[in-house]
Recover the amino acids of this structure.
């Protein structure tokens, strides 16, 4: 089997998973949904991450219970051949969309602010080939590239958050918790759509992480880091902008320093910071793309992951271009659908698989569910 | 393998190719052999037995060495104690005449041999010949190779064996200072072209009984010798086997130096960055061999190849360990900063100048604009041309003999640069950017890595020209992806950083000296016990 | 055949590189003029008169004519109209990413036209939201001209001098475009912008410049009382806003008190008059501040906010009083004077309907629900605000003890 899985250590696993979780958590928010009724994202995002972690741990427990070495092995063992293929499709869709949403955000940012005289395709020409090349190389390369960039991204985030500290005001947090518990709960639940795809990708690439035990440890560490980072980032943004400004803004983290009165070289580096975070979005997207391809190859018994990567890359490019060139009203409708109900794409298959695996009795003579 | 089949190979369903992995954690137990490299396609010729009788031997040797047209080969007939005919075969210039005269011919010709003794090669080796090293061979292939190497072959009438006598005496360069790896505080000796001398230099530093030197021939038709040096019982045996396997798989007409050998045995010969360390310093080579690396020295090349290596190996200088820890740390940080500036500065400057002018302060903007007021070329071509001129000055400085070489640097740097600015062919700010970048390049200790950094710098400049910061981001990420995917004899190139391997020795900063004496985890040596340090 | 395929692929690659090379439209930095300040006045024939100050290119060791500013100005019905007119007459494009100041004349600010300029500017021209906003008492053209003094090669350093003034004297309160957006979108508070004044009587730097004038007295023609040196344009006091419209002015001293109320005051010098007519000069430094709103008064006719100020005082000049007398005066009559001045500033803000004191922030912190806060409509209730000041003055003991010794 030519799956290019290789083996990566715990630090690389945490780097790639945490990068994907943080990028998705910070840059995949729909501002209108998140902020128009007040701002409590600094609480709801970490809770959302923890909720996703719970589902992840449930599935991991099911995998250990059944002795499966990867998610698609678990699905085949507990759901059977046909149903596992059926459930694989929404998972793949969740992975692809989860990976491309930050890319779309960054392309729109670059098109609007940095390269305003260029079209979307010209900007994508620099991004998509890199995603495909990294995904093509397999888990080892993805993990090591993530390890190389993770500290830089964290440092940039800390610099941005720290340099905007002079403009922090507590009154901007008020009214705290926005408009009641119902909205808070629904937003928290729907935001699991940002965190579930990377955790799902981790379950799919379990073999590369030296088994479920290590993958569980990686997921837990990465999830906690992501909860902390997303919470602190959102708190920082909330100290700088009120909910009314945020509801109309696009990627507020990019212009978090604009309220700063002192003019210094540091505060002019917003484009540079955006490029560093773009690296994270590329890594996250490559990880999701590779995981989706691996899931497809495993579920449909392909011997080689290359054709899947090639096909899904083309589909990804098509989806991105469609999203970027769509009419604003149509785009708003689709965004509404995904931000509110997109979490179900990943959550339902994972939950159903886990529950059935735990309930279903394993026959004593049945071998462990090794996928291939 | 043509392009069509390469492209088809990317997309077709296929089994995974077996790859050699050294790290246990990567693939479980490391696999022994690659399995996909071809063993040498050319079968070695069958061994030819030594003919019986001196006349037949002499006739065969004349044919073999083309003595009628090849006057270098000397065939000397003589008799021992007026009883047995003998023949000496040696190469003029390769074998030492005085050794042949004093320790072979004279003792044999003046020997008083007992009458009832069977006089054969074995008897002569034990009782008559006064040579330090004697090997008994029974095939003409070994004789041929030995004579061409500087040994003397002794045949005796009626004996089907031959004695190969150690008589090396060719002219060679004396041990001198290293040309390219100069240090302020540390040994100054460098390798020479003689394999024996180089092995001696290694043995003078490593007085260890587990040091093994295996000599063999390279795969070329010129039959150059090489030595594989490692610590038996410490160095991972699969690594040694892999090195031997790759050396055995060489099938090429000529190998003159270690540079060619390096490209034939490394994992990715297309990559600009080397995956073996090429060093002319015995101390540096020994340092790596002691940790568990394998060294390969080729006859005729004053460079030793060390494998496996990582990126930090290429960036470290031997002097780091010879000076005090804080100074070593500062030097290393300066080196990395210099390398970063060398690679990133021109591209970054171009990106800001073409796409992101807002990143520059008003003062810098106004200075750059004023300096470029009458310069006719666009800033991108100006930068690329200046980078090219810098490379030309560098190449000229290497090629031009001795004293003039230094003057070239001064002429190029000062006069040309100043004249170019005055003539509005270049702007002063761009010139400074190129100069800083060039200086940073020289901070990189390894020559091949310096060249690779120059290529990467140019690629980043082109990427910045095409897309500004996003071009640089894409190109940098591609470079990191290539480095992350590369392996050097089964060791990931970015170890111990990515993947994280257990090591108490920092990769960039210079750690305490005790840490430098332990083997690196990624070498998977058999010596896993850590010696406790005495507390002061 | 192999070499043909390779050549074709190489040619395709080269062509694609050449096509992609120009696709992001690079423009070299020397094809731009970098606008440092934009100013808007009333126009004569068209609606607005837009003036721009660009940084002149300057070499490191250039002559004295290097640097300084280039001024471009044109009329237009809106900003883009003016920009198009200006760009039609110059050989380079205008670049606004280095714009540090957005200046409006008082007339424009009072007409409420600022919204039109500031709302468009960021999206279309890429002027950063961190650009400072400044209101000029006279025309912007005069003010900008007064900023470009002799020997000032780098006009972009003006911004750092304003920041120093804000922290050293407190007589200037800076604001930027982002703060305007925040204030006007949310109506939690109002902004105030620094007020610029052009004083023609100031005699600018009288340096010896030429060989012919060497040895001459550069102050020969200066009379006693003339203000010599520096720029003709100064910044003193603030303009208060109600949303996008300017509704009032505070002078430099009132600005210092406003700054204290807002909690951003660092240090400054104040002059007081005793009942005897003596002058007493005090350096005040703001220590701890505490601001809170009385929740039970939120819906009443007198919405009350409590502001506790701790001021560290150093007596610089005390007339004929000794240390102890001066300290006693400060803790009684002096404190009252400070309180009165603070209340005067509050009254002025209320008169201008400008919550430049930012009391609305405190009100917003009393609400737990967005809908309740949005229904509350703070600005409509602003006139009912009452501020109660609790002032504590800590006099620099070390100085007074030493003098007593």
């Amino acid at each position: 089997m030519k799956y290019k899985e290789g083996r990566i250590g715990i630090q690389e696993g945490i780097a790639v998973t945490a990068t994907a979780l943080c990028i998705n958590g910070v840059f995949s928010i729909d501002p209108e949904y998140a902020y128009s009724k007040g701002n409590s994202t600094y609480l709801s995002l970490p809770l959302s991450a923890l909720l996703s972690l719970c589902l992840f741990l449930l599935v991991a427990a099911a995998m250990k219970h059944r002795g499966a070495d990867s998610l698609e092995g678990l699905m085949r063992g507990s759901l059977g051949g046909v149903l596992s293929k059926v459930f694989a499709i929404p998972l793949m869709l969740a992975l692809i969309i989860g990976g491309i949403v930050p890319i779309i955000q960054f392309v729109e940012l670059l098109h609007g602010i940095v390269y305003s005289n260029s079209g979307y395709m010209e900007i994508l020409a620099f991004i998509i080939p890199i995603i495909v090349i990294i995904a093509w190389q397999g888990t080892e390369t993805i993990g090591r590239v993530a390890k190389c960039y993770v500290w830089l991204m964290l440092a940039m985030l800390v610099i941005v958050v720290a340099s905007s500290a002079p403009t922090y005001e507590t009154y901007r947090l008020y009214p705290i918790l926005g408009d009641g518990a119902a909205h808070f709960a629904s937003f928290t639940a729907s935001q699991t759509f940002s965190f579930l795809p990377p955790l799902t990708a981790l379950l799919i690439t379990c073999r590369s992480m030296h088994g479920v035990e290590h993958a569980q440890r990686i997921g837990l560490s990465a999830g906690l880091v992501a909860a902390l980072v997303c919470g602190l980032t959102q708190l920082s943004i909330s100290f700088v902008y009120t909910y009314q400004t945020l509801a109309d803004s696009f990627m507020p983290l990019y212009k978090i320093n604009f309220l700063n009165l002192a003019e210094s070289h540091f505060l002019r580096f917003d484009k540079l910071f955006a490029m560093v975070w773009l690296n994270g979005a590329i890594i996250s997207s490559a990880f999701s793309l590779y995981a989706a391809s691996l899931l497809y190859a495993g579920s449909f018994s392909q011997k080689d992951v290359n054709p899947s990567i090639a096909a899904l890359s083309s589909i990804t490019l098509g989806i991105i271009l469609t999203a970027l060139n769509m009419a604003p009203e149509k785009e708003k409708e689709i965004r509404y659908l995904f931000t509110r109900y997109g979490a179900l794409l990943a959550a339902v298959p994972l939950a159903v698989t886990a529950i059935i695996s735990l309930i279903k009795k394993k026959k004593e003579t049945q071998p462990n569910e090794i996928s291939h | 393998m043509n392009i069509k089949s390469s492209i088809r190979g990317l997309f077709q369903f296929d089994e995974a190719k077996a790859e050699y992995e050294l790290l246990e954690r990567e693939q479980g137990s490391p696999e022994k052999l690659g399995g996909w490299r071809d063993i040498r396609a050319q079968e070695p010729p069958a061994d030819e037995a030594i003919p019986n009788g001196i006349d037949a031997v002499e006739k065969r040797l004349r044919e073999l060495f083309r003595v009628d047209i090849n006057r270098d080969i000397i065939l000397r007939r003589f008799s021992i104690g007026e009883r047995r005919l003998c023949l000496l075969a040696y190469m003029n210039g390769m074998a030492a005449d005085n050794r042949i005269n004093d320790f072979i011919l004279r003792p044999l010709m003046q020997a008083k041999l007992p009458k009832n003794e069977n006089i054969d090669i074995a008897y002569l080796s034990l009782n008559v010949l006064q040579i330090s090293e004697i090997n008994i061979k029974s095939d003409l292939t070994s004789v041929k190779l030995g004579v061409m190497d500087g040994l003397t072959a002794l045949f005796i009438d009626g004996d089907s064996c031959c004695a190969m006598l150690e008589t090396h005496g060719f002219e060679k360069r004396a041990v001198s200072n290293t040309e390219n790896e100069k240090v302020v505080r540390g040994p100054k000796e460098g390798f020479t072209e003689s394999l024996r001398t180089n092995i001696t230099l290694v043995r003078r530093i490593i007085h260890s009984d587990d040091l093994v030197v295996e000599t063999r021939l390279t795969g070329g038709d010129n039959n150059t010798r090489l030595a594989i040096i490692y610590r038996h019982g410490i160095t991972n045996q699969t690594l040694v086997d892999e090195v031997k396997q790759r050396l055995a798989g060489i099938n090429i007409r000529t190998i003159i130096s270690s540079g060619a050998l390096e490209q034939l045995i490394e994992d990715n010969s297309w990559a600009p960055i080397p995956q073996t360390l090429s060093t002319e310093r015995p101390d540096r080579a020994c340092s790596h061999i002691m940790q568990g690396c394998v060294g390969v020295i080729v006859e005729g090349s004053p460079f030793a190849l060390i494998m496996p290596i990582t990126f930090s190996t290429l960036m470290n200088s031997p002097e780091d360990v010879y000076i005090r820890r804080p100074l070593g740390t500062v030097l290393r940080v300066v080196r990395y900063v210099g390398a970063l500036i060398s690679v990133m500065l021109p591209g970054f400057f171009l990106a800001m100048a073409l796409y992101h002018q807002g990143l520059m302060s008003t003062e810098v903007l106004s200075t750059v604009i004023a300096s470029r007021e009458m310069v006719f070329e666009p800033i991108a071509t100006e930068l690329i041309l200046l980078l090219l001129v810098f490379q030309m000055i560098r190449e000229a400085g290497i090629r031009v003999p001795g004293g003039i070489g230094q003057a070239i640097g001064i002429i190029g740097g000062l006069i040309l640069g100043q004249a170019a600015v005055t003539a509005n062919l270049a702007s002063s700010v761009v010139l400074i950017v190129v100069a800083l970048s060039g200086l940073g390049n020289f901070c990189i200790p390894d020559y091949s890595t310096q060249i690779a950094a120059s290529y990467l710098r140019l690629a980043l400049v082109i990427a910045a020209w095409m897309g500004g910061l996003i071009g640089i981001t894409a190109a940098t990420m591609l470079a990191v992806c290539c480095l992350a995917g590369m392996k050097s004899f089964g060791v990931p190139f970015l170890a111990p950083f990515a993947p994280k391997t257990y090591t108490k020795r920092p990769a960039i900063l210079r750690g305490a000296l005790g840490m430098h004496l332990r083997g690196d985890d990624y070498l998977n040596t058999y010596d896993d016990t850590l010696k406790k340090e005495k507390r002061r | 055949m192999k070499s043909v395929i390779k050549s074709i692929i190489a040619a395709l690659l080269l062509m694609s590189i050449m096509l992609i090379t120009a696709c992001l439209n690079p423009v070299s930095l020397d094809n731009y003029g970098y606008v440092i300040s934009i100013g808007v006045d009333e126009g004569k024939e068209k609606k607005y008169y837009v003036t721009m100050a660009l940084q002149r290119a300057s070499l490191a060791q250039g002559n004295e004519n290097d640097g300084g500013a280039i001024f471009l100005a044109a009329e237009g019905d809106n900003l883009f109209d003016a920009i198009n007119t200006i760009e039609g007459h110059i050989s380079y494009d205008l670049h606004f990413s280095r714009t540090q100041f957005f200046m409006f004349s008082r007339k424009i600010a009072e007409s409420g036209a600022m919204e039109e300029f500031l709302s468009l500017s960021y999206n279309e021209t890429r002027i950063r939201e961190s650009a400072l906003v400044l209101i000029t008492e006279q025309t912007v053209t005069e003010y900008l001209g007064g900023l470009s003094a002799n020997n000032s090669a780098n006009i972009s350093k003006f911004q750092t001098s304003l920041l120093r003034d804000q922290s050293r004297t407190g007589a200037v309160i800076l604001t930027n475009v982002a703060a305007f957006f925040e204030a006007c979108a949310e109506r939690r508070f109002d902004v105030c912008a620094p007020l610029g004044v052009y004083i023609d009587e100031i005699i600018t730097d009288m340096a010896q410049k030429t060989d012919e004038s060497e040895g001459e007295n550069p102050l020969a023609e200066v009379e006693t009382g003339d203000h010599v040196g520096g720029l003709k344009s100064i910044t003193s006091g603030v303009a208060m806003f109600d949303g996008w419209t300017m509704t009032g002015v505070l002078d430099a001293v009132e600005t210092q008190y406003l700054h204290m109320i807002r909690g951003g005051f660092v240090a400054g010098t104040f002059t007081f008059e005793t009942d005897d007519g003596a002058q007493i000069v005090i350096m005040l430094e703001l220590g701890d501040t505490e601001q809170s709103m009385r929740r039970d008064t939120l819906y009443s006719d007198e919405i009350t906010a409590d502001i506790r100020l701790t001021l560290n005082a150093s007596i610089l000049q005390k007339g004929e009083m000794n240390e102890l007398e001066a300290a006693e005066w400060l803790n009684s009559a002096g404190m009252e004077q400070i309180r009165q001045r603070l209340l005067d500033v509050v009254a002025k803000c209320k008169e201008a309907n400008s919550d430049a004191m930012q009391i609305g922030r405190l009100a917003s912190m009393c609400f737990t629900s967005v809908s309740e806060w949005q229904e509350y409509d703070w600005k409509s209730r602003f006139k009912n605000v009452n501020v109660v000041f609790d002032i504590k003055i800590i006099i620099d003991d070390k100085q007074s003890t030493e003098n007593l010794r």
User: Anything to note?
Assistant: Chain B has a mean pLDDT of 83.
